[in-house]
Amino acid sequence: MAKGGGEETRVGDLPEACLEVVIALTSPRDACRLAAVSPSFRAAAESDAVWGRFLPSDHCAVLPGGLAPAPDGKKKKGVYLGLCDKPVPVVDGSMMVWLEKESGAKCFALPARKLSLPWEDGEQSWRWTPHPLSRFAEVAQLVDCTCLDIYGRLPASALTPATSYAAYLVFAMAAEGHRGLTFPDQESTVSVGGRVVARHAVCLRPDDDDGEARKLREAFVVGAGPVRRPARRDDGWWEVEIGRVAAGEAASGAGAGEDVVASFEVLGWYPKRGLVVEGMEFRPV
User: Where are the alpha helices (DSSP H) in 38-195?
Assistant: First the structure.
């Protein structure tokens, strides 16, 4: 703008501290774009003042020993990028945390050891074993059971504010085969403080060669929508979306100190085996 017919003041002429305040109100993706505008924007967009705002307020608690700074010496940007590159175990070892690169929202992975697994059929229902593709020391392999329900819980206060999340069961099938996991009577739910906010019909192992099973699967609906199918991940595991919790629902639970609980259940009582559970993930959507 011009004052009294004098020279115009451009945005790039503002003090670096002013630019830092403005850029910190955007997103990590926007900050990277703004760094290409001009040298003054680049200096502000890569500053610790900006990237410190993008880091979760509790990042020091979830980083055991911290992460190495970036080669350019921008410590907080290096910590941010380090948290985006790969999951980091929290200090107490209860889960792994990483950041969605574009938004900075936190993602969580609960290992099978932190899930609630059914033991009604005795201690031999599950076998704990290492897996070459797993991020965790052990996975749970279903040996034999008739009742199968799996629960994972996360404090609602841990979720990034004003962010909607989806929960996923991460799994595989045992090399020696599986049983009882192709039928359509499988259900997933997500609840906040005991209030169910999502319910879906799912099937971990759809058998498209079985015509009768396919008809049942297409007809079986819980609430709304068809049966959900799993998807193969780049890391070799399979995942199925359990359900979603909206930002407002998560916020109400966070204020009350409640948990977000995601569950998967096979409704039929018949023999089941061969499921390999790596864990459960909560990711922003």
Answer: 39-45, 48-54, 59-62, 75-85
Q: Which stretches does DSSP call E strand in the chain?
A: 88-89, 96-99, 106-111, 126-129, 139-142, 148-155, 165-173, 186-192, 195-202, 231-232, 238-245, 259-266, 275-284
Other CB atoms within 10 Å distance of the CB of residue 222: 17
Tokens standing for residue 169: 């069961």
**Cβ–Cβ under 8 Å, residues 109 and 95:** yes
Domain locations in the chain? 11-99, 107-284
Cβ atoms of residues 106 and 160 within 8 Å:
yes
The SS3 call for residue 113 is helix
Q: What is the pTM of this model?
A: 0.84
Could you report the per-residue pLDDT of 54-101, keeping only the tens digit for each?
A: 988 777 766 555 454 444 555 889 889 888 888 888 877 789 999 999
* Assigned CATH for 107-284: 2.60.120.260
Residues 109-147: tens digit of each pLDDT: 999 999 999 875 556 789 999 999 999 999 999 999 888
